[in-house]
UniProtKB/TrEMBL annotation:
Signal peptide extent: 1-21
GO cellular component term, pick one: membrane
Compartmental location: Membrane
Domain of life the protein comes from: Bacteria
Main location: membrane
Protein name per Swiss-Prot or TrEMBL: MetQ/NlpA family ABC transporter substrate-binding protein
Residue stretches spanning the membrane: none
Length: 267
């Protein structure tokens, strides 16, 4: 009888102790969020990070200076999510490098234009003039489409943003097309006759973002995406952060305050 009482007491004690250790604590590791060219994106992100922290979700922002490294870091598991690319860019990168990524939601979309610090109209651009466009496949293609809309070149029909310099079929002014890292395009304006540019990058360089000779309308398909690896163990945490970002009035206000209609929420 005494033995049975001792065993029962020991079992009860073990069960009571297990109540404190059976369920492991949630991971304390912060979500690692990669941003490329963070300047135009940083203010709204900071607001969302603070709101997430208040809700018990830690987010660490990691900045990159190019548009290749954030996807490589995501593929290698160095970050949990990146935010800098639209769907056409993502599809092109995935096809080229074999990524298995997915979008968990949409962010903002921005204006793209053709700018000149030397000329006030396309007619003034001289024979043999120099035009700078983005050097990555999708965004460079967008620049070429704008040049066609401006009447400066003609492209092989049907390619849209997939066009490359090799697809120029007519170039009546014999323009020299130079390809430049997209973030650096505003710096070329003093040296070229015309440059493709993202309005928010021009603003960050202290230039007039509304001075484009031609704007490409904001398009939903070029809205930035929250991108993760398809097998990421942090998908639920990232979804929570994206929901905070998208539902926050303070985030929306931060976007509008800094950029007006140059960058707009796309959700």
């Amino acid at each position: 009888m005494l033995r049975r009482q001792l065993l029962a007491g020991l079992t009860a004690a073990l069960l009571a102790a297990s109540a404190f250790v059976a369920v492991p604590a949630a991971s304390a590791e912060p979500i690692k969020l990669g941003l490329a060219s963070p300047g135009p994106l940083a203010d709204p992100i900071k607001v969302a990070v603070e709101e997430a922290k208040a809700q018990g979700l830690e987010v660490e922002v990691i900045e990159f200076t190019d548009w290749i490294a954030p996807n490589e870091a995501l593929q290698n598991g160095d970050i949990d999510v990146n935010y800098y690319q639209h769907v056409p860019f993502l599809e092109n990168a995935s096809a080229a490098r074999g990524y298995t990524f997915q979008s968990l939601g949409v962010g903002t979309s921005s204006k793209l234009g053709l700018y000149s610090s030397k000329h006030k109209s396309f007619d003034e651009i001289p024979e043999g003039g120099t035009v700078a466009i983005a050097n990555d496949p999708v965004n460079g293609g967008r620049g070429l489409v704008l040049l066609e809309k401006a009447g400066l070149i003609k492209l092989t029909p049907g390619l849209d943003y997939k066009a490359t310099v090799a697809d120029i079929t007519e170039n009546p002014k014999n323009l020299k097309i130079v390809e430049v890292v997209a973030q650096q395009l505003p710096r070329t304006l003093a040296d070229v006759d015309l440059a493709q540019g993202y309005a928010h990058f021009l603003k960050d360089y202290g230039l007039d973002p509304d001075s484009a000779l031609l704007f490409d309308p904001i398009q939903q398909r070029f809205a930035l995406q929250w991108v993760v690896k398809s097998d990421s163990p942090r998908i639920d945490d990232v979804k929570k952060f994206v929901a905070i970002y998208q539902s926050s009035p303070a985030v929306r206000e931060a976007i509008t305050t800094r950029f007006g209609d140059l960058i707009v929420p796309a959700w």
